[in-house]
Amino acid sequence: MVPIDNGYRFPLVIPNVFSGQAGVSGNQLAFIPNLRGGRAELAKSGTLDGFQIPLVVQKLGAGPFYGATFDPFLLAEMRAAATTGDRP
User: Fold this and answer.
1) Residue-level pLDDT at 88
2) Of the candidates 36, 31, 39, 20, which has an alpha carbon nearest to the alpha carbon of residue 63?
3) What is the C-alpha separation between 31 and 39, in angstroms, rounded?
4) Residue 79 pLDDT > 60, yes or no?
5) Residue 48 burial by CB count (10 A; 0-12/13-18/19+): exposed, middle or buried?
6) Fewest beta carbons within 10 Å, which of 18, 43, 58, 85?
């Protein structure tokens, strides 16, 4: 069994794979695919908390969970740019 730290929850959309709240901790997120039509492990990007970011997705253990890593600094830059009107 793989422990999952669901530190915070943010909206995540991965087209044809997932739409809902994902657990986010540091540079990792966890979700259970809930849409048909796409394979989670092939996803290259998603929209996390309203921002389009690159993702590296992988299966977590034998259960239904998938995990993904992302660049938290890129997300922070995008959030800051959104509040100031600048683009990273």
Assistant:
1) 52
2) 31
3) 13
4) yes
5) buried
6) 85
- Tokens standing for residue 3: 């422990």
Closest CA to 15 of 42, 79, 62, 64: 42
pLDDT for position 84:
77
What is the H or E stretch that residue 28 is in?
strand 28-31
* DSSP assignments along 26-83, one per residue: TTEEEE----SSS-GGG--EEEETTEEEE-EEEE-TTSS-EEEE--HHHHHHHHHHHH
Amino acid at 22: A
Burial of residue 65 (number of CB atoms within 10 Å: 0-12, 13-18, 19+): middle
Query: What is Dmax (Cα atoms) for the chain?
Result: 44
